[in-house]
Design goal:
Helix content is 48%, strand content 16%. With 295 residues, the protein is α/β, with parallel strands linked by helices. The strands form three sheets. It has a five-stranded mixed beta sheet with strand order 5-6-7-10-11, sandwiched between helices. It is globular and about 55 Å long.
Length: 295
């Protein structure tokens, strides 16, 4: 029993047309007729609320969630580099979980455009999930069961905060360089110097996280600290010259450029907290200038 909450014209569109998605790889279009609402009443009861809004919009929903005692659990899904204190200050900590969907793409005229990774890798991408204290609880297993019953595989991490921080250390340089090239992944693929910049900026940001006590959560994040640039550049170039990168990376960078600008500012606050200079992050600032962003 699923209800979607949407706002403004997006609510009107879903109410009239259903939730519409387009797989950019196959051209298939999917429509799901679901219950939709634009309000959450204090008397409503939900076992689980998934908040999939951009980070820079999430605080607008805090008062609504806080005023509803009938919500058992709240799962915030999305990028976050600043940590969870602002959530704990606004909402009951015992209700909160955090995760990441690992799904790129964008919304154009209310239609969701995405790439089906299952068609590429022959397996569905897992949703990352973590508890604020890193411990698996009875409710954690219950939520995993609910998600997997809906055919959403879940990958548990005991350090969701660290995972999200390292994810943005990877993503922010890439988004910045994509925006520098007007959101064109094929143009970026043909710029070896900007591909090198992505790697070096990740190392700058990852070094700050290490100094703060966050260790790379997986082999992938550790790999980027030592892989030689002459190996990284051709591999990354090949990835960027794909339809997958066009939708999952470039479209997403353009769709959420304002959100990524906020994440960059918060990452620089982490650097200031440990007294680190950020020459490469400073260069990224210009990429997120709102006057220069691609339409």
């Amino acid at each position: 029993d699923v209800t979607m909450m949407a706002r403004n014209s997006h609510y009107d569109f879903i109410k009239s047309n259903g939730l519409v998605l387009t797989d950019e790889l196959s051209g298939e279009r999917f429509t799901a007729k679901i219950k939709v609402t634009d309000t959450l009443n204090s008397s409503d009861k939900f076992d689980l609320v998934l908040v999939t809004m951009r980070k820079n919009h999430q605080k607008t929903i805090f008062p609504v969630l806080a005023s509803n005692p009938g919500i058992r659990h709240i799962l915030f899904i999305g990028n976050n580099v600043a940590g969870f204190d602002s959530y704990f200050n606004a909402l009951p900590k015992e209700k909160l979980l955090f995760g990441f969907g690992r799904a790129g793409g964008g919304r154009i005229n209310h239609v969701i455009h995405f790439v089906d990774r299952e068609k590429i890798s022959h397996q569905r991408m897992s949703l990352m999930l973590g508890e604020p204290d890193g411990q698996i609880k009875k409710r954690t297993r219950e939520i995993i069961r609910i998600l997997e019953k809906a055919e959403i595989p879940v990958r548990w991490t005991g350090n969701m905060d660290g995972w999200l921080k390292y994810h943005l250390a990877l993503v922010l340089p890439l988004c910045g360089m994509l925006l520098k090239h007007q959101g064109d992944n094929y143009m970026l693929a043909d710029s070896p110097e900007d591909l090198k910049f992505c790697l070096h900026a990740y190392r700058e940001m990852g070094g700050i996280l290490k100094q703060l006590g966050y260790q790379p959560p997986s082999f992938q994040e550790r790999l980027f600290f030592w892989i030689p640039t002459f190996m990284f550049v051709p591999v990354f170039k090949k990835i960027l010259r794909t339809k997958f990168a066009e939708i999952a990376f470039a479209m997403h960078a353009k769709a959420a450029a304002d959100e990524f600008a906020g994440h960059l500012a918060e990452f620089k606050q982490l650097a200031r907290a440990v007294g680190r200079s950020t020459p490469l992050m400073d260069q990224l600032d210009a990429c997120f200038n709102p006057d220069d962003l691609p339409v």
